[in-house]
Structures are given as structure tokens and as C-alpha cells.
Amino acid sequence: MTVRIATMGMAGCSGCHIALLDIGVKLLDILKDVELVYSYPLVDTKNPIPPNIDVALIEGSIRTEHDKEMAEAMRKQAKFVIAFGACSAHGGVNGLANVFGGKQGVEYVYTKTILMAQKLVPSEHVPQILTNDLRLSDVVKVDFVIPGCPPNPDEIASILTALLSGETPTLSSKSICDECPLERLTEAPAKLRRIHEIPEPDKCLLSQGFLCMGPATRAGCNAECPRRGMPCTGCRGPSETVWDQGVAMLDALAAMEEDEISDFKLPRLAGTFARYTYASSKLDNLRKGVQKE
Amino acid sequence: MKIGVFLCTCGDTIKGTLDYEELVTFTETLPNVKYVEIRDDWCQHESLNALIETLSKKKLERLVIAACSPHLFGQRFYEAAEKAGITRGLMTFANIREHCAWVHRENPKGATAKAKRLIRAAVFQVAAQSPIATKTFPVTQEVLVLGAGVAGIQASLDLADRGIKVHLVEREPTIGGHMAVLNKTYPTLDCSICILGPKMAEAATHPNILLHPYTELLAAEHTGKDWLLTLNKKATYVDWDKCTGCMQCTEKCPTRVDDDWSWGIAKRRAIYMPFSQSVPRKVTIDAEHCKKLTNDKCGVCEKVCPAEAIDYEMKDEVVKVQVGSVILATGFTEFDPSVVPELHYVENPDVITQMQFIRMMDSVGPFGGKLEVPSDGRKPEKIVMIQCVGSRDERYSWQCSAYCCMAAIKHAELAKLEYDPTLDITIVARDIRAGGKGFDEFYVRAREEYDIHFEYRGDDLEVVQNDGKTVVNYTDPYGKAHSLPADIVVLSCAMNPSPGTEKLATMLGVPLGELGFYEAQDEKVALARTDVNGVFLAGTCHGPKDIPESVEQAGAAAEESSVWLSTQSLSKELDVAVVNKDLCNACGLCVPACPSQAITFEESGDCVIVDEVRCQACGECMATCPVDAIGPLNINPTVLDAAIDGLLNNSIEGPESVIVGFACNECMYRAIDEAGEERLQYPADLHLLQVPCTGSVSTPKILRTLEAGADGVILFACASDLCHYGRGARMANSRVQVVRNIINQSGGNPAIVQVVQMIGREAKEFAATVQKTVDAIKGRNGG
User: Fold this and answer.
1) Which of B601, B731, B738 faces A262 most closely, judged by CB atoms?
2) CA-CA-CA-CA dihedral for B250, B254, B256, B262, to nearest 10
3) Domains of chain B and any CATH numbers
4) Which residue is closest to B706 within chain A, CA to CA?
5) pLDDT at residue B11 in the model
6) Disulfide-capable partner of A145 in A89, A216, B359, B686 (CB 3.0 to 4.6 Å)?
7) Binary contact (A287, B629; C-beta < 8 A)
8) How many CA atoms lie within 13 A of B639 on its CB side?
9) Residue A234 included in any domain
10) Structure ipTM over 0.90, yes or no
């Protein structure tokens, strides 16, 4: 029996779709049993969404009324909905717009940036923008999440293979450190360093003062970044038992003698500690809570 | 799960404030609560018996005592519960007296609402707790003996013969200490090395003794049951496995250095063996004076060594040992008479000390036993010995050095016996102290048989030089002046603590007496014991004494130490930090956070492990763990969350807002109790949870408490530099700053999170501070 699969792209960069293609030769094995019934990033048709979809992969966050409508429409037709990639799973980089609250960001882009000659916020023929960037699960029920910016092709392949053979896929519940080959941290970072201050190879990046989000970030990517000397930026969101990814990492640095992090302004706090998750983070909840009051 | 809640009215003292009917009705509705009972006096014997009976009869599995502070009668309740088979881990307290009724007497409604929350928090918390096991950790069956003089050697042999492994550490290249070079011993004039030599050899070859010569103690740390000692094995620059002790190198070495083992009256080479009976019989290069090591010149020893044992590249080596007990046998050093101006010890070469004199007379010593006047090498005719140099002299020490009367008599007799019976020897003493067994006979024999003269001095005494002739001028106790010409003047110097004694005392925490010797626990009945666990004393490091006394004390120290090893074991309730291995990712954040160095990585590197002996259950690890994989058994993240939910979930009707305070169990909780005892009033908004240290409350935990509905959070920490665990209070401060910044940046009021730091027992200040802090937090509601 062939499995009917659909893919969809919301506010995002199509990078997750590229990652899907990046599965490479193995994709041919997967496609043997699959009928790709709907995929507007790949095939130029948007409507109508066909019925009886078995699995829907939805990339991107929910940024406009249109995104919301399309997600709801897809949910109606699909038995199993997957939030595909960081934006869909946690709000993604787009979520950082929430820092500036509501529509302020849109106004800035259309009236203050050089490229926008008319200095006008468009109102016709464009969907209404939402006050806050949302993740997919904020608008529809999500059955499974594939995290990552972009998701790891091997992980996508193994999840799809599991689904096609009727198994329930799982994500690692551990954090990046579990997969990281670098020498373990044994002393707390004394000072925050930036990546151009080249880290020593083979040594825990966090212990050297580079903000590596590894301890609080979900494993499953084989620690590809830190093992190459690049601190984890946390694209896979919090690991299973982390209360909040960004706050946990803020705490990890609270012991630093130079008390710089207690002076971070919100854009830096969000951009550094919740780069892919701000829209679904406790930091944003706090902001929303205060603004509601 | 069956939980029993036992409410106390404290003999009616809190009945007026709290509405007990309401409390009981409320408590009965709480999940898992199967039994509630009120009494006026749960702490009393009769009631405790009733408690035990009820617990058993009703088959209750966990219990909550809602009464006074657990710091007051907690232990009684623990013991009672234990009799009913409920371990310490499965009970908890709601402090409704000191923390509630007594401090909110003017607000009965608020106090009752708060008591409900405290009881609910306790019920939720106890449901999440785990039983605590007790484990016994035996003390490591090894002893380190520091100092290998006669006392150290004797103690080591006594222990080793009992099958206890001994590390015998000596900072010199040879064991033996002073006794090895004393020539003869009093009062029998036995050959000193003939007695000690076999003991030295036995110590070196005993299967249970590991010798650490030329080694010093660098650091000492007590792990809770054992001593973890770091030793520095100094480089000898000679491979002792190859060195045969043939001494060809010492003959050829061109560098001559003052010989410490002859107290400077002779020279030795830069490569040397301390004395001919050294154990181990190996040579050592004195790095400070060797030309090769200081200037990269010479290298003769390497050329002549037939065993190719010289190794100029050798480095110091750090060795770690773990032992159950330490015996200090670090000995003494002879008082330096150069500080006594009237003796002219430095200017006059014919003024020497007893140690120098005995080395001079030693037939196998540096002079080959030739007795001569140091300044011109002539044969001496008159010798004067001066007693009490540096002792019984208030300028230096009021103490009698105990050994010097007998030592002087012994040396006088030896000089007469072995060198020249016609020698004229006078001992100028304050008095002669000859209290030991056979001592007085020895003294009488010296006077009567050997014709040694004894004169008695007062305070005035001076050694002068007239025309190159040395004269001792002194006044006798009756005020009459005397003048004694002398070819050699021998000073009987005090015993002083050996250099480094103070450093070791600091390292091990052993108290020093006024004169700088180690202090015994009791100078009459616990002579070999110190106030420090597992540390014992042997020999002259404890005070001046002679060989028999040193050996006696060494035996006692060995005995005490072996009893210590067989009786002392650390019995510890394991409410220590526990690691959830499934969750731990070995990120390592908790490793540097632990103030007790109790956390290390498991061998596989997959997770961390906790040293149950070292862990103090402060909870600092819990706060740093991003995935909640570690925490003290009964204040782990789940238990703490349960308590927070107990305070906050579902509103309880009451006029107050709910401010959650996390109070450190060391200083602050007691200060808060005291505010209760003094009936100081503060707002009922404040609800306290007890944590081991405020450093255990993480940034996420503070924010989570606010998310759960708290109107504010206060961390009650010790003063930053007084935190019992080191950095806990400082961390509490840092975290509050981080949280306040987050709230501020999100547009909220940062004042809702506060840290209060106080030194314990400032109850009045505490109440005032709470009022101020609660006002600051509630300011938000007004604005």
C-alpha cells in the first residue's frame, strides 16, 4: 500500500525541504512506498489540498492569517501531522520578531529599510500578519516534531522509514553533550568569549567560555557543530526535561565572575539564548504575560 | 499511599491565631491524606507514644508534623516515626508556629490561610520524597606516619606488626632522625645506632611499611572518613634503583657544603649520604649547591658512577595516598643559640652545641672521633657545659627541655671515658633534673666516679674572650661571681618544634600549644591523641622529651591509631545527591559547582557520579543541572516542585498574596525561627520553604515559582562570605540578578524577586527586612 504524503511551507526558508532532498540516494528507497500528493514548495500548486493524506510535513512558523488557515486546512486532511524543522517546532528564528512586540517589526521592514521605496505597509492582496510568531502546535494538534535548523537528513530518513513501517518514531531525550566527543567540562566558564577568539580544539567549548547551548539542547544531530569547534546554537530546541532552554543556559553562566549576562538587553538575551525558540520560550511567555496585564 | 497529618496546638499557644477546625477540614481533603489528628503537645513523651501507636495501627506510610520548627523537636519526631517503621525520608514538617501563628497574631485569617498552604506544601512534598538508607563506610585501613625518627619508626613497626599498612614519610634522604647520630644513649651509655639501626632496617624491609624518604606533605584533606594526603617526593637526582651506595661519587664531588647532620661543624659534598648508616643506603644530590644543577658545570658524579645512576633531569613527583589515620612524629630541632647575645656563639668558634659536640666525638662521625678545640685544633683540657640555653629562660621558652641535663652528663662522661680521663669538665646548671629511671645514679656516678664538676648558676652568665682565651663568667644563686676558663664551651640547647610544624598544623587542623608544639587532646589522659579525627602524636613534636618517653608515646599513638581504624567508620544517612543516569548527559556543569568536590565523571564518561562520603547535600549541583538529572535525595527538583505546587496550586481563600521564600537551612531558617520565638510580626504573605542552601535554587526554579502563581520570590541567604558551602549565597545573588534582568527586559517589575542576606540570629532585623521586602514586592499590585 502506498503512503500518501504531503509537505507544506509556512514562514520559513525552505531549508527543511532542502534537507529532505539532502537525504540523497536513500530517498529513493523511501519514495518507493510513497505517493507525494501535495507539496507546493516542490510542485507549483496550492489548492485544493487533496483528501486522505497519511503524513503531512509542515515547515515554517505561523506568521500570518494565511499560514494559520493553511495549517488548519491541512490538519483536516492529514492523519499524522509533523512539525518539520525549528520554525514549525519552536517558532524558529522568525520568533525573534516577538521581541519587538506585535506589528512593530512589519512597520520597520516596510517603512524604514532602504529597499522599500514606497515606505508603506501593504494592506491589499496580502494576508494579515499575526501579532506574534507562533509555532505549529499553537494553532493545530501536532503528532510529531522533527527539530533542527535545518533538520538532520539522516534523522528525517530514519523517522520517515519508521513511520512507513508502521512504527512510532522517537526522538532522543538526551542533550547534545551526550553525543559530543569533546573533552568534558570540569571548570566553569570564567568569561564569555566570542567565536572569533578561536577555541582550543578537543576541549569543551562551554568551559572555554564559548556559549555552547549543548547542555540544554536536544540530542539527535550527532553534535555535528561542537565536534567541529562550532558552539551549539540550540537549533534543536530544549531536551526532554529542560524547563526552558535559554533560562537553563543563562543559569549555567550565572556563576561567571564578570557579571555581564545580568545586563543583557532583551534582543541579545533572546537572540543568544533562545535563537530558535523564543516564540515558544518562557522568556516570551513572560513578556506576553506582562503585556496582557 | 497513606499519609498521616498530625497538627499541634502547642498547649493552646497558637490556638488563638489559627482556626484548627478549618485546618482539619482542609487537611482531610488533601490527596493521600488518610488520617488527621490534633493534640496540644505532640512533642511530649505520652503523645509521642500515641503517635507511634497510631502510625502502626492506621498503617500510615508517611507523615507530616504540623507544629513547631523542626530545629526544635525534629529529632524526637524522627525517632518516634522510626519506631513505627517510617524512615526519616518519609516525613516532613509544616512549621505553623514560629513561621506562622506566632508572627501573624494580628492577622488570624491570613495566618490560617498560610497554615493551609504550608500544610499542603508539606503533604505534597512528603508524597514526593524517598526513604533514606544508611550506609557505613569503613575507614581505610592504612596509616601515614609523618617523620621517621625513633618515634615514627617505632609507631610504624608497632602498626605494621598488627598487619596495618603504613606509609612512613621522611623529609630527609634517610630515616633515623636525631637518634641515629647521638652516639650513645643515657643512662646506660648504650650505642645509639646499635639500638636504632636494626629498627631502621626493619622499617625499610617490613612488608607492611612503605617508606617515602625525601618526601614532604604538600596538602591534606579530610574526606569525611579518610585523610587524602598529597606528598611531594623530592628529586634526589640519583636513580635509587641503580645506586649501590658505593660512595665513589661523594669522594669525587668537588663541592663542599656545611653538613646539616653535623650541625655545621663539618663539611659534606653536594652529592652525599647523610651518615654512614643511612637507610636507604643511597646518595642524594643537594640541588641547591650542586654545580651541575645550578650552573650546568662539573658533572663529575655522572662520570664516576659505575651504576649509571645519576639523573640530572629527575623531577619532583607528586604522590597521593588515602589513609584512615595520621601519626605526627615530626620531631624537634635544636634551639639556635646564635640569638642569645651573651653566649657569642657565632663569633666564638669554641662555643658549640651538644649536638655538635656529640658529632665531634662520634668515632664514625665526620671527625673520626677526634676531640679537638675548633679554633686551633689543639687537645682540649677544660670543657665547660652551660645548661638551659633557650629553655627556662623567659626570653625564649619557660619550659624545661627535659633531656639536656642527662645529655650533658652523658657527653661529659663519654669525653672522660673515651678520650681523656684527665679532662676538666664543669657543668654549669640551674639545677640538675634527674627524675627518670636510673638517672640519679647516673648523675651521682658522674660526680663521684668521673669527677665531673657541677656548678650552679643564676640568671647572669656570659661567655667572653680574653686574649683569645674563652672564659665563662656567671653569678651563682647566692650572688657570688665566678669565672671559669674553657677550651671548649658546650651549650645544652632547648628542644624547639621542628621547622614546618606550624604549616603541618594548619594543613591538618591540629592545634599548637604556646611554644609551638602540637597540643594533645589532654596532657594527662590523652597524650597521644589530638582534637582532630584520626590524628595522633608521637615523640618530641608534642614537646621536649627523651628517647624512652618518645618510644612510649609512639607505642601509645600506634595503639590509638589501630583502635581508631578498627572502631571508626563513617555511618551516613544517604540523603546525598543522586544522579538520574538516564537523564544525565555528562555536560559537567555540576562538577565545578560542587563545593565538596564530590562529583566526578563515571569511567565510561556517560554520566557523573557522586561520592557519597563527600557529598554534603547542599544542592548546588541541582541548581546547575539543565536537565534536572541530579539533586539531593529529598530536595530534588521533583520534591521542590511538589512543595511549590503545594503552596500555590488552587487558591486558598485568604486576604494575602503568596510570596514564596526559599530559606537556607543553615543561618536563615534559624533566624526566622527566632523571629517567631520573639513574636515579631511580619506580613503573612511570606511562605517559607526550607532548602539546604539558597545556592540550590536555580534561575529556572525562581521563574517557575512565579509561573506557578507566586506574587514574588525571596531567597533568604547567608552573607556571601559566610555561606557554609562557599559560593551558595553568592550564586543566589547572581541568579536573582539574572532573573530580575529577564523580568525587567520583558517589561515586568523586577522587584518581585528579592534576595535577603543576613547573618543568622538577627531576628529583629529579619522581621523589619521582611516587611520592607514584602512592601517592595507588593508595590507592583498598587501600581
Assistant:
1) B738
2) 20
3) 1-132 (3.40.50), 135-234+316-331+503-572 (3.50.50.60), 236-315 (3.30.70), 335-496 (3.50.50.60), 574-630 (3.30.70.20), 657-783 (3.40.50)
4) A286
5) 83
6) A89
7) no
8) 28
9) yes
10) yes
